[in-house]
Design goal:
237 residues, alpha+beta, Deoxyribonuclease I, Chain A, six-stranded mixed sheet, globular
């Protein structure tokens, strides 16, 4: 089984079709995409979630991190998506903890709403997510998701997405009871895109039900997005 995660920067690099072509080249069974717009002015009022369902011929589930703002359109949404070759059952969208204020010097978007999609596909429970950009919020979000994982551990579990911090950071320690699917290629630099990448912030984490067969970073020197996609090949044991 092939698992893939990719922050697509709402298609601002080379567009949705270029993203879809890259994904199809690597043929994942399960795919998480972060930064997916739906019906927003800034991306031409395109429902990117539905567009990828059609382009990839995969089944999907969507987590809306936030709606609006009003100037983006009355149906505008921003979030992330989970796709699978098998059917996807959305169990819950977890709204992740954020502070109610910014600290001096921080941009307003530091405390924008974030979400985690809990879904089931092919007998596997998947938590696909996009964490905040600052460590104190990330740690609270990691603790929140760790608690949800432990409360819903009746199936094999995959946790993947853009964590905005290293697997080895203090902020992500609450999730280190899971296996790092990219351990064999650490430091797995994914941001910014291409060979200039120097941050390891995108991860695929696994419960003990999986054996990792291999992992890779797809080095995107073309500017399809501002992240390099990641892949983990696994089998259930």
């Amino acid at each position: 089984m092939r698992i893939m995660s990719y922050n697509i920067q709402v298609g601002w690099g080379k567009g949705l079709e270029a993203i879809a072509e890259l994904v199809k080249k690597y043929n994942p069974d399960i795919l998480a995409l972060q930064e997916v717009d739906r019906d927003r002015k800034r991306t031409g009022f395109v429902d990117q979630f539905k567009t990828f369902e059609e382009l990839l011929n995969m089944n999907g589930g969507y987590a809306c991190s936030y709606s609006g703002p009003a100037e983006q359109g009355e149906n505008a949404q921003y979030g992330h998506a989970l796709y699978s070759k098998a059917a996807v059952t959305v169990e819950k969208v977890h709204h992740l903890w954020v502070r109610d204020r910014t600290f001096p010097g921080e941009a307003d978007w530091v405390i924008e709403p974030r979400a985690c999609l809990q879904s089931v596909t092919n007998g596997i429970r998947v938590f696909s997510l996009h964490f905040s950009t600052v460590p104190d919020i990330q740690k609270k979000q990691a603790e929140q998701i760790a608690s949800e994982i432990k409360a819903h551990n009746d199936l094999p579990i995959i946790v993947l997405g853009d964590f905005n911090n290293s697997f080895f950071s203090d902020a992500l320690k609450p999730l280190t009871f899971l296996t790092n699917g990219l351990a064999s290629i650490e430091p797995a630099y994914t941001y910014p895109n291409g060979q200039r990448a120097n941050d390891d912030i995108d991860h695929i984490l696994l419960s003990s039900h999986f054996k990792v067969l291999g992992s890779q970073i797809i080095v995107d020197n073309e500017g399809i997005s501002d992240h390099n996609p990641i892949i983990c090949d696994v089998e259930l044991i």
